[in-house]
Amino acid sequence: MGREEQIISERFRKLEELKKTGIDPYPSKYKFDSYSLGLKKKYKKLKDNEIKNDKVSVAGRVMLIRNLGKLIFVLLKDSKGDVQLILQKDKTDKKDFENFKKYVDSGDFIGAEGVVMKTKTGEISVLTKKIEILSKSLLPLPEKWHGIQDSEEKLRKRYLDILMNEEIKELFIKKSKFWDETRRFLLDKGFLEVETPALETSAGGATATPFKTHHNALDIDVYLRISMGELWQKKLMVAGYEKTFEIGRQFRNEGIDMEHLQDYTQMEFYWAYADYNDGMKLVEELYKKLAKEILGSVKFKTHGYEVDLGKKWEIYDYEKIIKKYTKIDIYSSNEKEIKKILDNLKVEYDKNSHKWKLIDALWKYCRKKIAGPGFLIGQPVEVSPLAKRDKKNPKKVQQFQIIIAGTELGNGYSELNDPVDQEERFKRQNELKEKNMDYEAHVHDKEFLEALKYGMPPVCGFGFSERLFSYLVDKPVREAVIFPLMKPLDKKEEKEVREVKK
């Protein structure tokens, strides 16, 4: 039997012994009145070795035990931090003292009552009178100073990674604040938060591969949404709402890399009587606010780039940027020429792709050379089927993408509200899909076209995903997800993990 198996066996023995003595190792409730952080703030002015006879009760997980016989030091971790408990033979309830020595291990949850003191080393502690076991831990925690070393296991057992790593715990507190601040900003600007369907009969609002499932009650196939209710929110513009937004989960059945996941959180807003120029101003204000709230500064380093959101945001033209870095004229070049350049640049692409998918692959290569911050404009109509044409150049659309640190961190445009133009673009998208030239092409959504025919005002739409947060904190997007989807271990892999632990 290996060392870990011995530890687990011993803990199971303690569990059974606890039950036999009449002690419930998993009680339903425990009432306490203090947290570690509050105690340290309130009693920081105590003198060394001073005892304050204020009764307090705390609760949390035992992280470390130092048993000196008649004196036991315990590091107790709660949701605010950690505090030291001191169990003393002549001060702690005799039965509780003995039960602690017999049954409590690191990892157990306990409740403790006592008085506050400051030790001779200046540490605020609880001189403990009574102890109650709240949850018996049967598996040992990772070593405190090393934590979980394997990167995949960290994600698979995220709860342990959070427990052992304060930086990871703080990361997800920041992420919650990120979405709170986004929501507050939009509400303060007069936007209405809405909820739109996550299951759709056609996957619209973006060009992406959807997840497909079957709805038993209606006996129809449905798709998990690939946008944050884009077409639904536009229908709300038809209905008369002027400003709406939604924050929620969306799903794309595509590859995993540093920037992409299959299910993730997205925000999209729609703003009637505004165009993409208005959108750019609002979004720049929002991004600066988010950086200040999350990082405390508009300057940060991420993914090898130095970013300053406080400087003037640049305007990048799609056609000019591609020509600058590849010498390709996107309108006069043909597929053969584009593929040759892509091959020379060692850029991966689908050999069956049509010209504009190939051009977009070129753009993504060029994008990596731009630190930003700035707005990409001037995209061709062919790569943006839902955006309004630019009156100055009908080959292009009124679209803007946020470019920071070599990637796209947001996308918006003046929404196309001409139902005739929209229907023609849908037909073209459908042709590409039928010819297997673009499996992500937008669906021909007849219900949305019908709504457009009733009339939709000028609208600016914009969205960003949690990729923005991952770039603010300089993490791959998967590491910035609290519980990323993981492929289950097969039996062979489970056995290998057990062997490594032994």
Could you characterize the architecture of this molecule?
The protein has 502 residues and is an alpha+beta fold. It has two domains: 3-135, OB fold (Dihydrolipoamide Acetyltransferase, E2P); 164-480, Bira Bifunctional Protein, Domain 2 (BirA Bifunctional Protein, domain 2, 2-Layer Sandwich). Helix content is 35%, strand content 26%. The protein has helices spanning 3-20, 36-42, 94-103, 151-156, 158-164, 166-188, 230-239, 276-295, 318-326, 335-344, 355-367, 419-434, 446-453, 467-472, 491-501; strands at residues 51-67, 71-78, 81-88, 109-118, 124-135, 192-193, 199-200, 212-215, 220-224, 243-251, 263-272, 299-302, 305-308, 314-317, 374-377, 389-390, 393-397, 399-404, 407-414, 459-465. The strands form five sheets. An eight-stranded mixed sheet has the order 6-10-11-20-19-18-15-14, with helices on both faces. Strand 18 and strand 19 (407-414) form a beta hairpin. Helix 10 packs parallel to helix 11 (355-367). The longest helix is centred in the middle third of the chain and has 23 residues, at 166-188.
Could you name the key traits of this structure?
single chain; 502 residues; alpha+beta; 8-stranded mixed sheet
Question: How are the elements arranged and paired?
Answer:
Blueprint (H helix, E strand, L loop, with lengths): L2 H18 L15 H7 L8 E17 L3 E8 L2 E8 L5 H10 L5 E10 L5 E12 L15 H6 L1 H7 L1 H23 L3 E2 L5 E2 L11 E4 L4 E5 L5 H10 L3 E9 L11 E10 L3 H20 L3 E4 L2 E4 L5 E4 H9 L8 H10 L10 H13 L6 E4 L11 E2 L2 E5 L1 E6 L2 E8 L4 H16 L11 H8 L5 E7 L1 H6 L18 H11 L1
Parallel strand pairs: 3-5, 6-10, 14-15
Antiparallel strand pairs: 1-2, 1-4, 2-3, 4-5, 7-9, 8-9, 10-11, 11-20, 12-13, 15-18, 16-17, 18-19, 19-20
Helix pairs in contact: 5-6, 6-8, 9-11, 10-11
